[in-house]
Amino acid sequence: MINLNQIKNIIDRYDPINLNPNEVSPDDEYLSEAKIINGMVSNIINEETFYHNIKRLFIERFSESVVDVKKLDIMSKELYFLFINSNKK
Questions:
Q1: Can you give the pTM of this predicted structure?
Q2: Cβ–Cβ contacts within 10 Å for residue 89, how many?
């Protein structure tokens, strides 16, 4: 089972909006996004669909002009594998 902190830590590490959580912005900066992503677990179809859902989430919440798509791509892959591996247990 994945906990919310695992998801948030991955988002914080990649920081796809360049907000510098825990340094410049509040500690809970990506918490609401982590909660939404956690809710996506039951609907994971495949890696590509998961990535597009993550990308859409961040663009809707922050704006396409500020989203670092390369960071988002790598981050979504790590989250995807975290979810897939947790379901194997």
A1: 0.89
A2: 5
